[in-house]
Structure formats: structure tokens, C-alpha cells
């Protein structure tokens, strides 16, 4: 098992992402490319970084100082809950509205209104559950 957002954990998430056509292929259809950072609220820097080119994750690991397009933050217990239990569109909207999920960079409202992005985004949270976490 690996610590949430550690280098090992992020690499396992990369493998899960690339093995899931409902995420990788759907994002490839719209030419989605982004640098995505994840971390914990109240920390200066994200913990993990995820680089996606045309839907495929090409690099993942510990945060490397990159300037992300998306920077998502939540408390560790919320990340673990979402990974364990999954979260749907309504749950993500509620988490965002209640401030449990913060976007320091990226436009959650625009993304969630675009079904071509929203569906894979929700499914990406389920992929977190496939990574064994301490």
C-alpha cells in the first residue's frame, strides 16, 4: 500500500487511468490535455502531479513544481472516503459547494457542465479506489 498522492500511489493511478477506456478514450475524443495536481487543503503545494496528453496519462508522480492547469485540494479523509465509496455527479457538486473539494486552479463549474468532461472526471474518482492506500 502507498500513501495517498505519493509517487508510488500516483504511478498506480496512472496505470488505472490508462486502463480505463471510459476515462482515457472519452478524454482522447475531445483532445483533453492537462497538468492535474492533487493535494491537501491548507498545504502550500500539491502532493501529486498527473500529466495527460490527448486523454492518456503520460507522466505521474510526486509534485515536481510544474504549473498545473488544475489543482484540486481536499482533506485527506475526504479524498479517502471518495476513493473508498466513490462519488457521483451530485456528490461532487455538493463537495464543491460545501468547500470540501477546492479548485485552486481550473474551472470546476465549466467542466461539470460539459458531459464530455464531467463523466470521465467522476469516473476518475472511482479509479482512486483501485489504488491501495495507507
Give a written overview of the molecule.
The chain is α+β, with helices and mostly antiparallel strands and 134 residues long. It has one domain: SCP2 sterol-binding domain (Nonspecific Lipid-transfer Protein, Chain A, 2-Layer Sandwich). The chain is built from 6 helices and 5 strands. It has helices at 7-18, 21-29, 76-85, 89-97, 108-113, 115-128; strands at residues 34-40, 48-53, 56-62, 70-74, 102-105. The chain has a 5-stranded mixed beta sheet with strand order 3-2-1-4-5. β2 (48-53) and β3 form a beta hairpin. α2 runs antiparallel to α6 and α3 (76-85) crosses α6. The radius of gyration is 13 Å and the shape is globular. The model has no long low-confidence stretch (mean pLDDT 92).
Summarize the structure.
The chain is 45% helix and 22% strand. It has helices at residues 7-18, 21-29, 76-85, 89-97, 108-113, 115-128; strands at residues 34-40, 48-53, 56-62, 70-74, 102-105. The chain has a five-stranded mixed beta sheet with strand order 3-2-1-4-5.
Question: Characteristics of this structure?
Answer:
single chain, 134 residues, alpha+beta, Nonspecific Lipid-transfer Protein, Chain A, five-stranded mixed beta sheet, 6 helices, 22% strand, globular
Radius of gyration: 13 Å
- Please tally the helical runs, counting DSSP H or I stretches of 4 or more residues: 6
Count of structural domains: 1
Query: What percentage of amino acids are in beta strands?
Result: 15-25%
Q: For the terminal residues, how far apart are their CA atoms? A: 6 Å
Q: Per the principal axes of the C-alpha atoms, what is the gross shape? A: globular
Task: Write the H/E string, N to C.
Answer: HHEEEEHHEHH
CATH class: Alpha Beta
